[in-house]
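Q&A log
Question type: sequence-to-structure
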Amino acid sequence: MKSRLTDMEFEIVPFVGVENLRFGMTPQQVADILGAPSSIGEGYYGERQEYRTDGNDLLVTYDEKDNTAVHFGFWPKMRGLSFKEKKLFQMPELEALAVLIKEDDSPYEVLGIINFLGLGITMSGFHEEDPSQKAVAVYKSGDLDSQFGSIKKHAIPFKLP
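Response status: OK
Response body:
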């Protein structure tokens, strides 16, 4: 029997996936690990989006052409989400940002989202310490470049402790 989604461990592996979830998986392969989605929707480009919810917790987005996983999005109830064995939602916000900056020291902000192109990770709500905006998203290689490459990049607007 699968444990509650929010109790599962999810270690981010840049450009590969999160724990046993890998980019390139089909919806059935993801369901074999996480169970059936709570709801299925369509994104801006017509891509399949699956929500798994113990209360708005995990989003899986699939490529609109081949229907394979290209994005995993997490909200704060996913307390087991980690990077370099640091639980990102269980530590102070700026410390969580510092963990990623240690690995990619050239992040930039676009529309309130901190983008780590070198890791394929975005974070929102951490630098503003705004719980309502807090999220972490993980992307396959090149996917962030295609989404944010043409947007003017701004230096991050905060200082780390």
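Response note: Residues 5-148 form one domain.
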